[in-house]
Structure formats: C-alpha cells, structure tokens
Design a protein that fits this description.
Blueprint lengths: L1 E5 L3 H12 L3 E5 L3 H8 L10 H10 L3 E4 L2 H6 L3 E4 L5 E2 L5 E2 L2 H13 L4 E5 L7 H15 L6 E5 L9 H6 L4 E4 L3 H10 L1 H4 L5 E4 L1 H31 L4 H9 L20 H14 L5 H13 L2 H7 L8 E5 L14 H11 L4 E5 L4 H7 L7 E3 L12 E4 L11 H7 L4 E4 L6 H6 L3 E3 L4
Helix pairs in contact: 1-3, 5-6, 10-12, 10-13
Amino acid sequence: MKITIFWTGYVWLVAGTCFADMWHHVMCIDVDESKIQKLTEWIIPIYEPGLSELVVKNFNNWNLQFSTDAQAGVLFWEVVISAVGTPPDKENNHKADLKYVKQVAKTFWEHIDSYKVFVNKSTVPVGTGEICEKIIQDEINHRWETITFDIASNPEFLREWNAIQDFMKPDRVVIGVENKKSKQILEELYKPISKNGYQIISTNIKSAEVIKYASNAFLATKLSFINEIANFAEVVWADIEDISRGMWSDSRIGRKFLSAGIWYGGSCFPKDIEALLQTGKENWIDFKILSDTQIVNERQKLIVIDKLQKYISIAGSTISIWGLSYKPNTDDIRDAPSIQIMKRLIDLWVSQIKTYDPEAMDRMKELFKDRSDIISFHDVSSDALSDSDALLLLTEWGEFKNPDFTEIKNQMKWNLIIDGRNIWKKDKLKKLGIVYEWIGK
C-alpha cells in the first residue's frame, strides 16, 4: 500500500520506516526543510537502536521517501496518517493542543481529490475524530464536490529504545473505524503483522481514542502506587524490593512498572494524564485516582533532594549527577527527573553540578545554556565525580550497573551516594564506607 505520514517525530519516524520495511510505500512529510534534508542524507535526529540501518535500507529500495510537499503527500494514495504532536496547551488548562492535528486535517481537505482514509495516529482526546471529520467535510461541501473519505484512529504504543521491536511484534494494534471499507484498508495495512499472529483490535473511533489515554494512565498510576508504598516502606523499616517481588508474583498484578524510584517522566505519561483529567472535567467526570497519581508523582520528584539534605547543606556544595535522560537508552529529556532536580539544587544555592549521561548531554546543554556557571557536562562518568560532596544516580543506564565504587569513593570529596533507581546493593557499599541512600529501603 501507499501511505503518507505527516510529521517525522520520534515515534512516527520509526512507524514510517517500519511500514516501509513491510514493503509498503511510505512518504514522510514535515514542514522542517532542514530535518527533511538531513533525513535524505541519512542523518537521523533521534537515538533509537537499529533505526539508522532501517532508514538507509528502505530509502535505498525506494520504499521510504521524505518530503516537505504536503500536496504530494495527500495525493500519494489512500491512507494519510496524521502523526503530529499534541503538546499540553499551557494557556488552556494543559489540555491537549490540537492545532497541529487540525492543520493536517486542513491540508488534507485542501488537496484531497479522491477517496482516502484520514488516520489519527497522534494521541488525541476522545472526539477528535469527529472534529477532523467536520473540518474536512465542511470544506468539501463548500467546494460543492462529492469526494468521499473516512476517518480512523490508530493509536501508537511504542516505547523509546524498544520502538522497532514494539512495532514489528506488538502486544496489540488498535484500529478505530466506523465502517467496513476503512476497516479493511487498515487491516490490509497491518496484514504483515497480523499474519504473524499479532492481535488486531477493532473498535469504534472513540473507543480507540480512549484506549491510548487509559493505557498510559494505568501504567502511570501503577508507578505512583509503588512509589507511595516505597515511601511508606522506608518509614516502617520494610524493603520495597521484597514488597514488589511479593506483589508481582501474583499473576493478576505482574512485574512491569513495579520498580520504585524517582518519578515518571517522558513525553507521554505527564501530558496524557493531564489531558485525560481535563477531558474528564469537560464531561463532568472527576478522575480521582488520576488526580492522586499526579499528586504522588509531583511529590516524588524531589525525594532525592530530601535525602540529600539529611546529610549535607546543599548551599556551597558540589553535586555529581549520573543520568540525565528520563529513562535509559534514549537521549529524550522531556520531563526528565534531572531537570527539576537541577533547578531545585540551583534554587538551594548549590556551588557546582557536575553531570554525565551517555546520550542526553547535548540536549541538556541547550536547555541549561544560561547556567554554565554552575552546571558542567563531562564526557567520562568518572570526571563528573572529582571533589564532589554527593553522587545522585537518576537514570539506570547499563554502564552504571557495576561501577568501581572504590574509585568513586577516592574521587569524591565525601562518600555520599543517593540511588534514585535502586540499582546498587547497600551491603557492598557499606563495606567500603560509603553512605548509601535508596528509595523504599
């Protein structure tokens, strides 16, 4: 099939490339000319294992192309996918901002000349399909034309660093449609996946729109729950790892998203929960559990600061940070714990913050470019430790799993480590004379 995808953001670049690898013909459209030029030169703007090789392979076999020509994108074939961002609208109660989605719908009606399916793959509030349908249909009516089209919803569930695997071997593919014709087209689109036994769930459009938000909200709630239990465990001298193991051994609960630590971040959970809360209010529904999930997560943000202040005065101190991205194996710093923690350290008059991350430092340098007087970025993890009063572990990168703690202790001014991800063992560090704090123990 021939597919056009509007926008080449993180997930959608992966999705477009994977569609191409299934021998669909894919055109990725973006308004950013420099980004498109770089993509045609195989310069990939994101860090995702295996993506560069897949882009080159499918670009060379003519299954994948990049363009800024919106008209060519709409005329390309039957399926036009809107995959633009839906950031929180800070001026409107942090509701999902649909201006980019509406712009793609407008572009669609400007150039549509025959039957096509307009697919929302962005994370959008329930009812967005109806909004897009009205935008398109009103213009077609205004033009006195009889062109037909269908609207569909096809939310994504890809995780950064695992995105290619998640696309090719998904837990499920959700398609929201309102008639047999559009259903058959989307099922054909995913036929290379479904024939390998992976589940295709067909619903109406509104159900598909809610599934994405409900899934993310549930996972975020699970994380906030275990973090609250972890804070309780510390007070009563229990061990959160034992508690988690006792919980996830129950098949009804499961192991994933039951690891305590500092709060959840990233590009999805925070904005999706806020958007769902606001959509609930518009429909006279008060999501009490989600409100509490949000409160717990906000409170968890600065727990490492509280632990730090148990031992030292932050004013005038030098603090080392290992890990800047919101999770390992990505350079994504959107709503990363490190951002709020560094801002709080600066507010408390820290003298120096020395940081290291394998992938995210360039993005963080740009964000804190006006604080180079306080924040430094180091190419080697050990270089970020010299004369430090404390080390904060904020992201569980693989290279941090088994460091030389004797070297760490020798390089630091004082021997305080706060592990925000519970990846080290207290007994080992205690024998070396290191003061060690973790979450929920």
